[in-house]
From TrEMBL, chain A:
Residues 1-22 form the signal peptide. Keywords: Signal, Transport. This is Amino acid ABC transporter substrate-binding protein. The keyword Transport applies. PROSITE patterns: SBP_BACTERIAL_3. It comes from the Bacteria. Residues 33-262 form the Solute-binding protein family 3/N-terminal domain. Belongs to the bacterial solute-binding protein 3 family.
Automatic annotation (TrEMBL), chain B:
GO terms for biological process: cell wall organization; peptidoglycan-protein cross-linking; regulation of cell shape. GO terms for cellular component: extracellular region. Residues 1-25 form the signal peptide. The keyword Cell wall biogenesis/degradation applies. Residues 73-202 form the L,D-TPase catalytic domain. This is L,D-TPase catalytic domain-containing protein.
């Protein structure tokens, strides 16, 4: 019996050693910075300026987590990663969280042993058309010449979609994105198809971006969100609820502009959010004002969206499917209580 | 409600004190999500150029994803976002960029379009005259009229959805009016919706 207990204890030690970095929050605090994996440069999502300062929708999520932990959104060490390098970097512990337009799939959780904390941006394949054509939706595209990049899932998805809806399709596949954009700009095709977020980025490369619209239809699922390693549930909770704090703030009407008013609010859900009622921050291993720190330093989800990729950015992506569930979209955060 | 009105008034005074110099400069809302009202005086008689009438792509009329239980043909205004949605059904809506006036923030809920008019006359309400005493007491409809190309009157209220002769105020929270669209957009909306159309105004939640 004793021997078994000793063996178990030893195994426990080994197990702990194996997960030497299972207390990510303590590591982050000891280091004084959050190591956040981002893309090497993607307009609106993560980009570095001349002075080396990072900004973007994905970058703001790194800043939100740093704000929750440190009350200082600048305490982030950005690790720019290629598509190939991003998951190994997370697995090896080179970063604490990955915030790099990554699609949530089964394989990435089950095989790569990672966990998605939530969906920060619902992406998916869409269609861009000249605004002057007065097309309202993708079902009106029958008989169109559609340009896309060859060898991508976009080509397959387009073929499936047109076939399923009994529409004629002339698919023009070109090897590079630049060739696709040029063919569309030159009028060699009526429609350009790829993921919606990319359509808005490509629109900026056209001579008159405002003369083109992206249709509301999304025909494939590319849910993007922050990712963590398996084995540290407490850290997963912190990353997950940082995202939910951004969303809940918007839903409750708490923004950088209204934060002072929110701190004086008598509404129960607002009081729980700002920490004047309950100990929700402490339950996460953070402080009472964890969510206030996020809004104060980064804003709410809507502010982050509009500033980086929405109506205040050159991309001008409509909230659309990423609007809150209560306002026309499907973004939905569980409540803080 | 009283708090919000006071806050708005204070914000307007603050804005006036340091923004008066460039009140008619090209301005976009700094926060987008805030309802800090910027004091932009009306410019009756001013006729904008075709260039000015071209909105930023983000504020142009476009079909967007929009999930709602309201039937097609319903107008839904999100004052906080500065967008007006005309529900099309099948999870989509036509979205128009708007400017929201002080009155546009005063009221939320359900109304109906009770009257439509093209190039309506303009009789500035007394509160507006008080703020901007130089305004005319009456101005006949036409280009240069702050009411713009069309107006949709809401219920028996003084609220309305109208055009504008100041296209650069789209996207802003401004001192006067209710909900304004550029003239091409308000004309488009006028042609699409009949009298009797359901109008839902959604404000930011109260804290």
């Amino acid at each position: 019996m004793n021997r078994i207990a000793t063996a178990l204890a030893a195994a426990g030690v080994l197990l702990t050693a194996g997960f030497a970095h299972a207390d990510t929050l303590s590591d982050v605090k000891a280091r004084g910075t959050l190591k956040c994996g981002v893309s090497q440069g993607l307009a609106g999502f993560s980009a570095k300026d001349d002075k080396g300062a990072w900004s973007g929708f994905d970058v703001d999520f790194c800043r939100a987590v740093a704000a929750a932990v440190f009350d200082d959104p600048s305490k982030v060490e950005y690790v720019p990663l290629s598509a190939e390098a991003r998951f190994p970097a997370l697995q090896k512990g080179e970063i604490d969280v990955l915030s790099r337009n990554s699609t949530w799939t089964l394989q990435r959780e089950a095989e790569l042993k990672l966990l998605f904390a939530g969906i920060s941006y619902y992406d998916g394949q869409g269609f861009m058309v000249p605004a002057g054509k007065n097309v309202m939706g993708a079902l009106e595209l029958g008989g169109s010449k559609v340009c896309t990049q060859s060898g991508t899932t976009s080509a397959l998805n387009a073929q499936d979609y047109f076939k399923q809806n009994k529409m004629e399709l002339e698919l023009i596949q070109l090897p590079t994105v630049d060739e696709v954009v040029k063919a569309y700009a030159d009028g060699k095709c009526d429609v350009l198809t790829t993921d919606v977020s990319q359509l808005y980025a490509l629109r900026l490369k056209l001579p008159k971006p405002a003369d083109h619209i992206v249709l509301p239809d999304v025909i494939s699922k590319e849910p993007l969100g922050p990712v963590v390693r398996q084995g540290d549930d407490a850290w997963l909770n912190i990353v997950k609820w940082s995202l939910y704090a951004l969303l809940n703030a918007e839903e409750l009407g708490i923004s950088t502009a209204s934060l002072d008013q929110a701190l004086k609010s008598d509404k129960p859900d607002v009081k729980r959010f700002v920490g004047t009622d309950g100990a929700y921050g402490e339950q996460l291993g953070l402080t009472k004002d964890w969510a206030v720190r996020i809004v104060k330093n980064v804003g709410n989800y809507g502010e982050v969206f509009e500033r980086n990729i929405g109506s205040q950015s050159s991309l001008g992506i409509p909230r659309g499917i990423n609007q809150l569930w209560s306002a026309g979209g499907i973004q939905y955060a569980p409540p803080i209580r | 409600m009283r708090h919000r009105m006071m806050g708005a008034a204070l914000a307007a005074v603050a804005a006036l004190s340091f923004m008066a110099a460039d009140a008619d400069a090209q301005m976009r809302p700094p926060g987008g999500m805030g309802n800090q009202i910027v004091d932009v005086p009306e410019k009756p008689g001013y006729v904008p150029s075709a260039d000015e009438e071209q909105l930023d792509p983000a504020f142009r009329r476009q079909p967007v994803y929009f999930r709602t239980n309201e039937p097609p043909g319903t107008i839904i205004v999100h004052t906080n976002e500065r967008f007006l949605y005309l529900v099309q059904g099948d999870n989509r809506a036509l979205r128009y960029g708007i400017g929201v006036g002080r009155d546009g923030f005063q009221w939320a809920g359900l109304q109906k379009v009770t009257r439509k008019a093209e190039w309506p006359d303009w009789t500035p309400p007394p509160e507006m005259i008080q703020r901007q005493p130089y305004l005319p007491r009456f101005m006949a409809g036409g280009p240069g009229n702050p009411m713009g190309a069309a107006a949709l009157y809401l219920g028996s209220t003084v609220y309305r959805i109208h055009g504008t002769n100041m296209p650069n105020t789209i996207g802003m929270a401004i001192s006067s009016g209710c909900f304004r669209l550029v003239n091409a957009d308000v004309q488009d909306l006028y042609n699409r919706v009949p009298v009797g159309t359901k109008v839902i105004i959604r404000q930011a939640p109260e804290l």
